[in-house]
Input
Amino acid sequence: MLAYYLELGFRSFRRARALTLLTLLSIAMGVAACMTTLTVYHVLAADPIPGKSARLFNVQLDAEPKIDYTPGGEPALQLTRFDATHLLADARGVHQLMMTGSNAALDPAGSGSDLRPFLVRSRFTSADFFTMFETPWLHGSAWTAADDAAKARVAVIGRELAEKLFGAKNPVGQSLRLRDRDYRIVGVLDDWRPAPQFFDLTAGAYGRAAEVYLPFETAMEAKLGSSGNMTCWAGSSDPRAVEAKCAWLQYWVELDTPEQQRAYRDYLVHYSEDQGRAGRFERPANPRLRKVMDWLAFRKVVPGDVQLQLWLAMGFLLVCLTNAVGLLLAKCLRRSGEIGVRRALGAPKRAIFMQFLVEAGSLGLAGGVLGLLLTLGGLWIVRHGASEYAALASLDLPMLATTLGLALAASLLAGLLPAWRACQVTPALQLKTQ
Amino acid sequence: MDLLPILHTLKRHKTAAGLIVVQIALTCAIVCNALFLVSQRVEAINAPTGMPDNELLVLGVTGLARGENPVPQTQADLAALRAIPGVKSVVNINQMPFGDDSDNSGVRLDPDENTKPQFGAATYYAGEGWLETLGLHLVEGRDFVPSEYVEGSQAFEQENPDIPAVIVNRAAAEKLFPGESALGKQIYVFGTKPHRIVGVVETLIHPYPSFNSQDDNQRYTVLAPARPSWRGGAYMLRVDPARRETVLKAAAKALDEGSVGVKRIVRRQKLFADMRSDYYRADRTMVWLLCAVCAAMLVVTAFGIVGLASFWVEQRTRMIGTRRALGATRGQILRYFQTENFLLSGIGIALGCGAAWVLSLVLMQQYELPRLPAYYLPAGAAILWALGQIAVWAPARRASLISPVEALRG
Output
């Protein structure tokens, strides 16, 4: 039966080539626009650390002064150095870290290379960073909490930088010079690019990961500074000092069980109240503890433009589908004579309905394949664009299946109305007019 | 015009007619809003900086060691840059529009730091020659006098730096002192010591200008006469635009070779025009994308109209033949199909305008966009009416060429 329907479909295609091609193109273009934007959205809104994202929490404390206070308002997005240091010392989570990022000046002469000095993306953080965020290791390992405490001059570097400075050699034990100080390399990370870079959105949500990692206190002692956002509510000659009233540090904690999470929330409230009694916090306790995906949603990490593009593409698909319905309808009704003959020869309405649905479905599959090619083309354009996330835009297997599925579903949907109208054709009337 | 027979025929083809109407309505709603988005972006991209964009270069330096006193090196850098042929003027400045940094502070009318600031403003610090280099215009007051300039690296070491004079942009002046001159008034930005407003510049835009932002803080800027050192800022050069590429290279070389006692990296060397262009890259992409989708949508809709109209012409061959035989002229047949399309488009456009309005309300809520100006609706209507008439032309003409004899015999 299917083969017969397909044959009929093919014949009708040959008779109404222009109309069929228009329908096909219409479906393919709509699907391609939709899938290109959906893929970009899918990549940008992805879970950057699947399997663990529900156990990693960003911490916020309300340390700002009373003026400008609205009860229950959103506290500052980052922590002061004073608070971060204290939470870290209390170590109430399974793992925890404080951190900031910067561009540090690297002097390759310190590693025995004759390259000219250049700037490297750097992260100044705690030993737990690597465990918490499951970084892939190429050589060596992380520094320890003891290194953190001792302000040890140790560093972890990324693979790209390792190859740039040391070639194929294992850099563990070698030295790295930032500005005018030397650090001992203890580990090398393999290629790693969490997207979005959830743990520090101020450094560009879809940028590349850092190339150098140093213990936080070590970097502060070397006055390597910080970049990203800083909010200060009182003037200070050194905004990065422990006592400065400036929020500029990211703080993350790993909490594995609901009990731990509850306990940690209580701990943050108690900490805030203690700070209030000590006169440091002026506002009532108002901490926040958000897991990765909540944090990303709250920070609206997917660019508004990308969402707008997705809506636009869906609108376009809708127009294309309406168009396809109209064209399919015209094609069906044009064949009223043929339908009349088939009905008169005993074909039930159901058979006519199926015939036209099969025709629409096969058109949809063809449109899907064409749409897939157009989607690949669309993503190629995105990849060669200048956006921060350009390199991330590629089609994975689920999205590929979605493309074909969408095309099929869309065309079947578009085929429903014409097929229904086709099976309403009355044989007698059609045969009489012939 | 004989509308009644058209309406009568359309009644018998409700489904097909309805599809065309829906398609036109959707297209109208989306195209109106998309074109408005395009115009918003284009306006942002072309918003004037008030600066001679094509004459400006930016260079930044980072040191590999923390030298003791950065002032002599800064002065040497400035002298070396000024000596390059083609350089008109040079200034050391802490930040610039479209740059990497944005330094902001609350502006208060009260020395007490615990009072609510009037607003947040971008805080520029610059050395001598800023007005000339940035090509800005004072609408009131004067430029700083030499005695007002301080060394930023020393002044900002203090908790309450001594900065007696500042210049603000017009937006800030009008916000702080509406209806009166801001000249001579005192404001508090850096610490608790007052700064007197000695001048008002027409435009001095925020480092991260955001044209459509609802955030007023993006509009206000303050400039203090504090010379940033080479460590704390960048150099901006105003040059002969014809020679800017060669001057940029020469300037980078001069900074590299002029490093005394400490290794330095020229971390940034850019044409200001390129920085501006990079800053708006995402907006330009969006403009192209929106235009492309609009064009594709119009083409698809046009082909939809061609397809259905051709079908109708074919289906109504007998009717056309009869009308022609009864004396209808070719022109009347042609106009029949044109009028039919005009009617269908009209219904679609009416629905589409309503949908466009609703869509605009949704966009306003979701993306903080301004309301769709009403004149986009007639513009969209005109586009779709024209599109419909163009699309229906070929099928309608084919209909008008049908010979009555053949039609009736067939």
Q: What stands out?
A: The mean pLDDT of chain A is 89. The radius of gyration of chain A is 31 Å.
